[in-house]
Amino acid sequence: MKSFEPEHIDRKSLYTNLEARIDYLHRFLDFNEHDIEALAFGSKFVQDIIPAVVHIVYQKLLQFDITARAFETRDTRSEEPIKNGIDVDSAIVQERKMFLNAYLKKMCSDQSQMEFWEYLDQVGAMHVGLHKQRPLRIEYIHINATLCVIQHVLTEAILSHNALPMSRRTAMVVAISKVIWIQNDLFAKWCVRDGEEFNAEGETTQPAPSMSHISPPKGTTSEGQQAGTCPFSGMTQAMQGLSTGPPAH
Known about the structure:
Blueprint: H1 11-16, H2 18-28, H3 33-61, H4 65-68, H5 70-73, H6 91-106, H7 114-126, H8 140-159, H9 166-191, H10 235-239
Helix pairs in contact: 3-6, 3-8, 3-9, 7-9, 8-9
Pfam families: Protoglobin (PF11563)
InterPro entries: Globin-sensor_dom, Globin/Proto
Protein name: Globin-sensor domain-containing protein
């Protein structure tokens, strides 16, 4: 019987070379051109419900003091009490809403480009106090939970729309889930201590594996394919009343 030879993955490269890390995650999760096509097709549908997703996420963040006070302290480790009343209409919350809105729109852009994954990595770095004049430090437990809420809302919205064939809805949910889990890893990358022995060595000088196995499908763009009527049209207003839990008090 022919023995099975597993593919070798250079452990050091996973911690010193972002492109190598992304390439490994893509292949482990089977993220491929079919996922990119599904995301391109669903891009405008997802963008239509982004305001509702943002609203629900910030309702959830304001539900607990440990995440709510971070709007003032910019650090979930802080035990300082909230000095000013904060709600979804507060200026400081509106500012963060604008960021999440822009972030979710970016999630609908061209995932075949390394620039897209570099952006997701920069978002991870920003949440541990890097690349900011005013450091933002959000502990991983809250980031992980927030990504779960985003995935839950998007999944429910997509699967509940019968205007799209189930095959399309399933493909969109699978592809979005892969992107969110890769984003989760790019947050964890900045928070966990795995591979810390390589930190002092800097970037590897060896070329990273090619990402040529992923390319934009023909006839699609980051704006998605043309379709008759967006099945999520008008859904944003209807979702404003949704909540992922009891209202904050």
